[in-house]
User: What shape does this take?
Amino acid sequence: MASSRQQLVELLQQGVISPEHVADAEQLANVAPNKEQWQQFVNTVLLWIACISLSCAIVFFFAYNWSQMGRFLKFALVEFSLISTTLIYLKTPANNLVRVATLTLSCLLVGALMALFGQTYQTGADPWQLFFNWALIITPWALVARNSIIWLLWFVLLNITLVLYCDVHRNPFFIMFNTKVNTLWLTFAFNLASFSVWQFFSASQSWMQKSWLMRMLATLAGVSITGLAIEAVYKLDVINLLALVLWLISLVSMYYCYRIKKVDLFMLAGGCLSIIAVFIVWMEKQLGSFDNILNYIILAFFVLGLGIASAVWLKKVQREIKHEC
Amino acid sequence: MSASHHTLWQQLKAQHLVQGEAPILEATSPWFVKSMLAFVGWLGALFIMLFVFSAFPSLIDNPKICFILSVPLFLLSYFILTKPNNDFFEHVALAISFAAQGLVLFALYEWLSNSTFLILFAILQGVLVLLMPNLLHRIFSTLVASLCVSFYLLDLGASQVVTSMLAIPLVWLCLNEFRYQSKYSLISGLVYGLSLSILFLQLADVFVSSQALGIYKDVRPWSISPWDSRLLYVIAMFYSVWKLLQVVPLNQHDKWFRLVFAVTGIFTLLSLNAQGIGLGIVMLMLGFARSNRILITLGILALMLYCSAYYYQMQETLLVKSAILMAIAIFAFICRWLLNHFAPASRER
Assistant: This one.
């Protein structure tokens, strides 16, 4: 029995329901659950409280005794947990939330096992190698599971790999470029490629059509290219000029794909924010230092102006979507 | 107007609870648009504040001037917030109000001893909750007021008193949210503010000590015993269950009615040293009772964060904490088995 709570709240705030009818309206909107729903809810809550308390109790117990435990017992614990979760995944029927949860837990336990290995044997490997190998090992599971949450973990691991890699190797493309390769270039290239591939395959695969993952990839690529454009504002050399051009191309592409071809408010809002960020940084550079306090009010004027313009435009686009619906 | 909105209107009309055509509602912006406008609004307000404080640096050092300067800022914020719905200017107004609060906080801190300035600031927040016509502002002011009262009691060694104290008005307000229709915005601000306060204070209780805060100038002559906070927790839990049972479709003479109180008593005893678990469950139950997804989410978040933070609590060893959690787990499993055994229900997803 679905609840219409939000709709009831909107009507109450409009003042169209008289006070003596509020209780009846609440009943019609199914705000209060019935006896069966309460029983099912209490059943579920008790199960989750029991499972979480039990898991935490076990973790706390092992944490208390961790320093006294030998290395083989530590490995055995993690490996046993990994095998158990994998077996639960194999035994659970398809399209079940428990199945997804256990496989996600298995993927996390792979990382825990690798970290334990690195900590125990002090192999001297760079941190980026841990994350890269972790992503590599869970790739077959991600392909088989066809689940967005596990792919999210995979993308996050590779983004962390790129950032940590650039920490150690400042100029991985020294053959092609004389200058230092910026971390943002790598994350922009990787996330843009991931977004494009995901967008392509999502046309034929229903499980890939969850918008939140595509938006996350778009956000990561957008943040990277915006960062590169801001760097170009401060120092305009050949590489940074290329970044600026790519930023403009990204904005134009985004407008074409998400305003003309189909409408996606999230992408448009992200584009607006990117423009505001780069423009304000550019204005700040033109104005010079903040010894002249009037610079603050000029910047405030531009920020407020751009903000109002964005709000009006996005509202207009939203009304158009509503009319089409 | 959405289809579900139209359906509800038709149902209300059929029961003669409303008349005429359904009101046309302005579509609210999605969360990411609001977030983007909030960021830009705050950035703009920040530059305005930097201009004001850079233009009059010597005035800002004077507490009296700070206090006087805060009044027009509060009025400006109030004026903007009373205007029709505008996501962008809403956040500009919030930033201006927060700047004004910062000035008042500075002025009070310079003038008064620690205990009085916290209580006075909490009173100011209470006034702002009543006057400022904005949900976000009310939530923030409720949260800050709770934190101020908690910081005041923290040095007395019993900040957990505040979280249990907050649960009582939270339960009453949540279960009576539609009773005062014209005050719904105020009540919902208080409900979410109190929920967030409980969440933050439970976490702060684990990590923050009075020495770490370092804001106190004077020594407290008296203190609150930990058993006072535990007693308040017991009262809060039984009050919450009693009020929830009034909205659950269960007969008072039903055996389950008495059983629920017995289970509450045992669970409360088990969780006396892990009060975040009990209070998180209360928030979860309240959210379910009112079909309020935000409150359900806050309840789940409170439970997850508290379980993580409980690891770092220094009052007991990990072994004792493990035993407490194991006892709670076993008790929950037993309760669930009893529920399924004596009252099997249809298992619909």
Q: What stands out?
A: Chain B touches chain A through 82 residues (CB under 8 Å). Chain B is about 75% helix and 0% strand. The mean pLDDT of chain B is 83. Residues 156-208+226-349 of chain B form one domain.
